[in-house]
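Researcher: Structure for this, please.
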Amino acid sequence: MCRIAQTKLDEATESHLFLEEYQRVMSAFNTYHSKIISSHIEDSLDMEHDLVAYFCAEFGFHESFPIYSGGLGILAGDHCKAASDLGVLL
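Model: Predicted structure, token format:
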């Protein structure tokens, strides 16, 4: 299950340990997203005018809406991660 009680969330907002960990994770996330775009991407794409689209036959919206088996959805996630690593905005 991917659910958490509201009381647990409320408790977390009062926990200094949780908030410190949250800030550490967010700092790492922001640093990751502020990396300079790879030069070979700049050479192959005009970031002002080129548009790249990725289409997938399945997506995982929520466990209560099982329209996916996992394979293509996982592949779509891998492609998005690779594009992010290369600095391509999604």
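Researcher: Any notable elements?
Model: The CA atoms of residues 5 and 56 lie 33 Å apart. The two ends are 28 Å apart (CA to CA).
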